[in-house]
Amino acid sequence: MPIAQLTAAERDAALAGLPGWKLRDDGLAISRHYKFADFTEAFAFMTRVALHAEKADHHPEWSNVYNRVEITLTTHDANGLSTRDIALATVIDTLA
Length: 96
Ligand code: H2B
Fold this sequence. Notes:
The chain starts with 7 loop residues before the first helix and ends with a helix. The chain contains three helices and four strands. A hairpin with a 2-residue loop joins strand 3 (61-65) and strand 4. Helix 2 packs antiparallel against helix 3. It has helices at 8-16, 39-56, 83-95, and strands at residues 22-23, 30-35, 61-65, 68-73. Bound molecules: ligand H2B. Residues 57-59, 75-77 line the site of ligand H2B.
């Protein structure tokens, strides 16, 4: 389902409310790194995010090494950032 890319102004305004999330150099994605006490905590977090992502039908690109989780959000259906990424980042922060 196509969805509009955020304009630069919309993107910057949204990012101002998401401290910790960084815009990728090409402006088409945002990313954040999280660090947990151990692998169990990191994977429990990923499970919470996965359950939400599946319900919202919007999925992160991510990797995990022991207690660290690196997350990139972009909208494939927009070839860049959309409101779906901002909404998912906001939820991810509450699940961390
Ligand atoms: N996740 C992300 N990050 N971007 C998308 O465009 C996207 C998605 N599209 N999850 C969804 C699934 C789409 O492929 C399904 C068919 O709704």
